[in-house]
Amino acid sequence: MLKQLSLRIILALTLVLCSQPLRADDNVLSTIKEAARQYEAGDYTGAASNLDYAAQLVRQQKSERMKSLLPAPLSGWEGKEASAQALGAAILGGGVTVSREYKKGASSLSVEIVSDSPVLQSVLMMVNNPMFAGAGGGKLETLKGQRAISKYDSSKKTGELYIVVASRFVVTIKGRQVAREDLLAYGEAIDYQALEKN
Known about the structure:
single chain, elongated
């Protein structure tokens, strides 16, 4: 009788524990521990695979957190749901990208934040060298203390704004059928201090 009761308690506890959602942190840490165990056992392929998997989980967590840094729709605009993408190093060098699209009548605008990507180096080169920015028709600007390059075609009402944050992030704002002020307003709406902490 006591044995059956103990078995029922163990079964009930197992069901309760299994029904709890596994926290992402637990998943990352358990994967890293498994990789360490495999490494110590000489299973280098398994260890490398698990470390890559853990790194991808970390990038996914970072991308989900970065989505909250995309600006809310400004007055008169509507925003779609933000999207996130975390790529491993094997795909285009890797990186984390979050983006959101906004509409107001015929006007459309997108905000994208990229981090941990080799693409960042080419944008940094443009921002840090005025000759590159000018050659591509861009104009160097400072936006909320951040270096930026803006390009705007008033005849087509299209434009782009590239903002480098802490030499680790590139914020890209692109618009069609928009005023130059719309691009700048969305650039001003981003919390760059919070972004630097990611």
